[in-house]
Write a structure and sequence with these properties.
alpha+beta, five-stranded antiparallel β-sheet, two-stranded antiparallel ribbon
C-alpha cells in the first residue's frame, strides 16, 4: 500500500491532535509490514488547506511499536490523553465523513458496550467530527469522542 495518501494503513493522515503521548492503532495488511514516518509536522492546522506546515525531522519522533494480533481493525484508531479518535478517508469528503462516523459507532459498540442505536445517538451528542485534510486527492475526517463522558457515576451519599 502506498504511504503517499492517507488511507487504511495510516500513512499521511495529518491530524494535529496526534501529539506526544498519543497511541495510534494501525491495521497491518501485509505480513512483515514495516513502519514509515515522513512528512512529520511540528505544527499544522486541521484541514491542511495548502500543503503548508512546520516540518519536523523524523528524529524528533519516538515510537514504541507493539503488535496487537488480538485487535482487528479496518481503519486506524487514535487515542490521546483526552479523546478516542476514529478516522475516515476518501476522495469524496462526505464518504470520508461517513467512514469516520461508522468507525465511531463501531468503536462505541465494540469497546464501550453500547448497542448501535445508543452508539449512533452518542456520536451525535458527543463526537466532534473535524476535517483532517482537503489538500490531498484523498480527503480526511476524524471524529473525536471525549474520554470524560465515560467517567463512572458517583454514588450519592446520605
Amino acid at each position: 500500500m502506498s504511504t503517499l495518501r492517507p488511507w487504511k494503513n495510516g500513512s499521511n493522515m495529518d491530524i494535529n491532535e496526534m501529539t506526544e503521548g498519543t497511541t495510534i492503532f494501525i491495521p497491518v495488511f501485509l505480513k512483515g509490514g514495516l513502519i514509515w514516518t515522513g512528512d512529520s509536522h511540528c505544527a499544522q492546522g486541521n484541514g491542511e488547506v495548502n500543503l503548508t506546515a512546520v516540518e519536523c525531522s523524523f528524529q524528533e519522533i519516538r515510537l514504541q511499536p507493539i503488535v496487537r494480533k488480538d485487535l482487528k481493525l479496518t481503519w486506524p484508531r487514535i487515542e490521546t490523553k483526552t479523546h478516542f479518535i476514529q478516522v475516515g478517508f476518501d476522495e469524496d469528503l462526505m464518504k470520508a465523513f461517513t467512514i469516520a462516523l461508522n468507525e465511531t459507532v463501531d468503536f462505541l459498540t465494540t469497546s464501550k458496550g453500547l448497542d448501535r442505536y445508543e452508539a449512533y445517538s452518542l456520536a451525535s451528542i458527543a463526537a466532534d467530527c473535524r476535517v483532517s485534510q482537503v489538500v490531498d486527492v484523498r480527503k480526511g475526517v476524524h471524529c473525536m469522542v471525549p474520554k470524560s463522558i465515560f467517567t463512572a457515576a458517583k454514588t450519592a451519599t446520605r
